[in-house]
C-alpha cells in the first residue's frame, strides 16, 4: 500500500472516489486542477480518508445494496478483552490476553491483540476484530509513508493524533476500535509532529504537503513573548522547526470516536476494572524490568480469572530505546493451577499452626 503511493500507482476505472463529495481537488506542478483521488503527480499528499469503491452499475444494484444494510444481525455484537500498557523507568510494557469472543462463544483462544507497528512501537487492540485489523494496517501504512518521506519515525503522540484524525469521521457509526499505542520516542530535532497533527485534525481538507515545508522563524515563543535562541529541551516551538523532542516511553489511548488520552497506566476492555485494581496497587515509576513484567502478567491473570470474555494466554511486549522484544506466550491455565496449589499449601500451614496452638493450650492446662 505504501509502495503504491510512493511510486504514484496509476488510477483505473475501478479506483474512483466513493462519491463526488469525497474527491480531493489537487493541483499538479503545471497548475492543472483535477478532481481525483491520489493521482500519480500528487505523491500521496491528499487526505487518507478518501476510500475507494467500485462505481455503481445500476440503480437496481444500488437499491439492493442499500437494503442489505437494514438486515438485522443474527446475534448482537458483544466485545470483551483485557489489554494494558504502562510506562516505567525501564521502558514500556504492553500486555493482553488472547481470547477472541463473540457474545458467549469463544471464537479463537489464540488471537494476537498486541501488534507491532514498527521497531519501537506496538499497539494493543480492543473492540471489533475486523475493524482493529483494518485500522492497524492503515496506521502502519501512514507511519511507514512518513518515515520514507522524512527519514525518521513518527512519535507516539503524533501517531495517536493521526489515528484519531482518521477515525473521527466514523464517530456515531458501528466502527469499534480501542487502541493503546505503546512505544519509545527518539530524541531528535523535530519539525512539529504534534503541532502538525493538530492542524490536520482541525481541517480535513488541509494537505499533508506542509509537513515537508515548515515555516521558518527567527525566534521561539515562551509564554506570551518571543525570545531568540534555542527553545528549552522538550519544548516544541510555535513557528520554528528545530525544536528538541524528549526521548522516552510513551503510552496513548485512541478510541473510535476520536478520543485521545495520554497517561502512564492504561487498561482497556471488559477486564480492565480488574486489571486496574492490580496496576494501581503495584505500579511505580522506579520499578525494575522483572517487577514490571510480573505486575503486567498478574494484572492480565486477575482480569482473565474474573472476566468471562478474557482468558487463555497472555502476550507481553517490552519496548526500550533499542526496540521491542516479545516474551514467550504463557498459558494462564498453568498460573491458575499454581495459585490453587499455593492456596492449598497456605491453608495446610494455617491448620498446622492452629493445631500447634491448641496443643500448647492443652499442655498448659
Structure write-up:
- By secondary structure, this protein is an alpha+beta fold.
- The protein has two domains: 2-56, no CATH class; 83-198 and 242-335, Aminohydrolase, N-terminal nucleophile (Ntn) domain (Glutamine Phosphoribosylpyrophosphate, subunit 1, domain 1), CATH 3.60.20.
- The protein is 33% helix and 26% strand.
- It has helices spanning 2-6, 59-68, 129-150, 156-167, 193-202, 272-282, 289-306, 332-364, and strands at residues 16-17, 24-27, 33-36, 52-53, 83-88, 91-97, 100-102, 105-108, 114-118, 121-127, 177-185, 188-190, 219-222, 225-228, 243-245, 248-255, 260-262, 265-268, 313-320, 323-326, 330-331.
- Strands 5, 6, 18, 19, 20 and 21 form a six-stranded antiparallel beta sheet that branches. Strands 9-10-11-16-17 form a five-stranded antiparallel beta sheet, covered by helices on one side.
- A hairpin with a 2-residue loop joins strand 19 (313-320) and strand 20 (323-326).
- Helix 6 runs antiparallel to helix 7.
- The longest helix is centred in the last third of the chain and has 33 residues, at 332-364.
- The protein is globular and about 90 Å long.
- The termini are far apart.
SSE topology sketch:
Layout: H1 2-6, E1 16-17, E2 24-27, E3 33-36, E4 52-53, H2 59-68, E5 83-88, E6 91-97, E7 100-102, E8 105-108, E9 114-118, E10 121-127, H3 129-150, H4 156-167, E11 177-185, E12 188-190, H5 193-202, E13 219-222, E14 225-228, E15 243-245, E16 248-255, E17 260-262, E18 265-268, H6 272-282, H7 289-306, E19 313-320, E20 323-326, E21 330-331, H8 332-364
Helix pairs in contact: 4-5, 6-7
Amino acid at each position: 500500500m505504501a509502495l503504491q503511493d510512493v511510486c504514484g500507482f496509476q488510477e483505473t476505472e475501478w479506483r474512483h472516489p466513493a462519491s463526488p463529495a469525497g474527491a480531493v481537488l489537487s493541483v499538479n506542478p503545471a497548475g492543472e486542477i483535477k478532481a481525483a483521488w491520489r493521482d500519480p503527480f500528487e505523491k500521496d499528499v491528499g487526505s487518507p480518508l478518501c476510500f475507494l469503491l467500485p462505481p455503481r452499475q445500476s440503480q437496481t444494484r444500488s437499491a439492493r445494496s442499500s437494503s442489505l444494510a437494514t438486515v438485522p444481525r443474527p446475534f448482537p455484537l458483544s466485545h470483551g478483552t483485557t489489554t494494558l500498557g504502562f510506562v516505567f523507568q525501564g521502558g514500556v510494557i504492553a500486555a493482553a490476553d488472547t481470547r477472541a469472543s463473540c457474545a458467549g462463544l469463544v471464537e479463537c483462544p489464540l488471537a494476537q491483540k498486541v501488534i507491532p507497528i514498527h521497531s519501537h512501537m506496538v499497539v494493543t487492540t480492543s473492540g471489533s476484530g475486523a475493524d482493529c485489523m483494518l485500522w492497524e494496517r492503515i496506521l502502519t501504512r501512514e507511519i511507514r509513508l512518513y518515515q520514507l518521506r522524512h527519514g525518521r519515525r513518527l512519535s507516539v503522540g503524533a501517531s495517536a493524533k493521526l489515528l484519531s484524525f482518521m477515525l473521527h469521521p466514523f464517530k456515531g457509526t458501528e466502527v469499534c476500535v480501542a487502541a493503546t499505542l505503546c512505544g519509545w520516542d527518539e530524541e531528535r530535532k523535530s519539525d512539529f509532529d504534534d503541532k502538525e497533527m493538530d492542524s490536520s485534525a482541525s481541517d480535513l481538507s488541509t494537505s499533508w504537503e506542509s509537513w515537508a515545508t515548515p515555516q521558518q522563524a527567527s525566534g521561539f515563543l515562551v509564554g506570551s513573548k518571543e525570545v531568540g535562541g534555542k527553545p528549552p529541551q522538550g519544548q516544541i516551538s510555535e513557528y520554528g522547526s528545530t525544536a528538541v523532542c524528549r526521548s522516552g516511553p510513551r503510552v496513548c489511548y485512541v478510541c473510535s470516536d476520536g478520543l485521545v488520552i495520554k497517561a502512564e497506566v492504561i487498561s482497556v476492555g471488559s477486564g480492565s476494572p480488574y486489571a486496574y485494581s492490580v496496576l494501581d496497587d503495584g505500579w511505580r515509576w522506579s520499578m525494575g524490568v522483572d517487577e514490571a513484567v510480573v505486575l503486567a502478567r498478574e494484572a492480565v491473570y486477575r482480569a482473565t480469572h474474573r472476566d468471562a470474555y478474557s482468558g487463555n494466554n497472555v502476550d507481553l511486549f517490552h519496548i526500550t530505546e533499542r526496540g521491542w522484544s516479545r516474551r514467550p506466550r504463557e498459558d494462564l491455565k498453568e498460573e491458575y493451577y499454581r495459585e490453587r496449589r499455593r492456596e492449598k499449601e497456605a491453608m495446610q500451614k494455617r491448620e498446622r499452626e492452629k493445631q500447634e496452638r491448641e496443643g500448647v493450650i492443652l499442655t498448659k492446662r
